[in-house]
Amino acid sequence: MAKIARYPSLLPFTGKVDGPTARAASAAPAKQDKDHALWREKSLRRLFTIGHIEHENELEQSTRDHIVRESMEVLRSNDRGGYTVPAEGLYPFQWNWDSAIVAAGWAVFDELRAWKELETLFSDQWKDGMVASINFHKFSKTYFPGPEIWGTPENPSKTSGISQPPVAALSARFMYEHTAHPVEAKQKIEDLFPKILAWHRWWYKARDPNNTGVVAILHPWESGMDNSPAWDESMTFPIDPTLPPYERQDLTHVNANMRPTKDTYDRYLTLLYRFKRENFYDPDKLYEISPFRVTDLCVNSILFRANRDLRWLALQLGKTDAVAEIEGWLDNGFEGFKKLWDEEAGLFKCQDQITGKLEDAAISAAFLPLFAGVATREQAARLVENLSTWLKHVKYSVPSLDPQDPRFEQLRYWRGPIWLIINWMISNGLRHYGYDELADRIRNDSIELTNKAGLREYFDPVTGDGAGGTKFSWTAAMCLAWLDRNAVIAIGHKMSGHKDYLN
Ligand code: DGY
């Protein structure tokens, strides 16, 4: 097949900066403006001259070009000047793991803007190292619970009082490794590294005080998989009878059958108010008093992989003390993961730390230890066997719950639908263990889903329809940095670490 020029219809870079980033930049000093224009020019040149694609189907490529252009547009339109909202209206603030994923998307066409995303994320880091799940920046009435409900110590409240999966080290590593501007990127990493390290230390101090190697989440929102059936049993604590009346905003943006139920929200808020009463989210106290304390596979797998990347960054910067500290976390984590393996099911499971029981639900995060590189080869084989069975029951991969589970709901948030970021992580992990065919299937399904349904928040695994929010930032970022055949960042399957832990 003939070679096809990439992005033929896109205009070459003119030096003119447009969109919301530009609006923010125009208020900045002239030098900063010039530097940004320079970075952007170099990044765009790289994007548009990345070369030609061989053996490519022309029609498919033009569809992909369309998605790439749309993805860039979504990031630009969700840019609020230094941070990107996940979706207009539905999520009007800076969400932690969304933002870190989105940084990798920005890096494809505007590296400076990508670093800015991470810098803004860390600008409200707590003194103890925590990076909160939400940074509020500007007030908005379109989301509940907003800053007035969280009421963290500052007035007005700048952040929520809990955290979210620690993705930042992953993006920082991709961005640094693939930069077209090594000198500037090194400076960015020098500044960010101690902040990310402090955040990982926080996870161990605040969420694993007994040094088990795996950390706890104290609220389902900390996992990011809010209403996963994995915590149905752990969410049976009593609802606070004094809960103030509240009005959900999510239901004004998205159908109720795609969102958590009222009962679940009552419990989310029971936890929130309980934590606020505890000296405004004092993490040491929270660990003791929370009626919800779970070892979550999503946070722990991401933390493990992030530690691998943080170690890689520490090596680049010659921080030998940090390297040793991180290797300790990795070795300890490998031990900690052992007790999350359910031999009978052939899957990893989340664990309720209060009862000590493994959670019964088999969820997509069961496959994330592959992404962490913490599963043994035998465990990987069992996981692949299970995943292949799941996929016989749905058209598209990977549902967030085993489709054979009676609780499976193909549209309800984390109780069935597909999330592209999880697909990327699982597929990346599968490649590491040599399961390329299954990894390709997941990638191809992901491409088909975005082609079919657009840049939606999540997708129905049975019909392939889009669900939840529209023009969704991290879905756009995944298209740019992962699904696009020639992604500049090419979020590949590089796994680093001092041991491979596979045997
Ligand atoms: C929500 O409101 O749906 C978020 O996931 C909480 O962070």
UniProtKB/TrEMBL annotation:
Residues 91-475 form the Mannosylglycerate hydrolase MGH1-like glycoside hydrolase domain. Pfam families: MGH1-like_GH (PF22422). It comes from the Eukaryota. SUPFAM superfamilies: Six-hairpin glycosidases. InterPro entries: 6-hairpin_glycosidase_sf, 6hp_glycosidase-like_sf, Glycoside_hydrolase_63, MGH1-like_GH. This is Mannosylglycerate hydrolase MGH1-like glycoside hydrolase domain-containing protein.
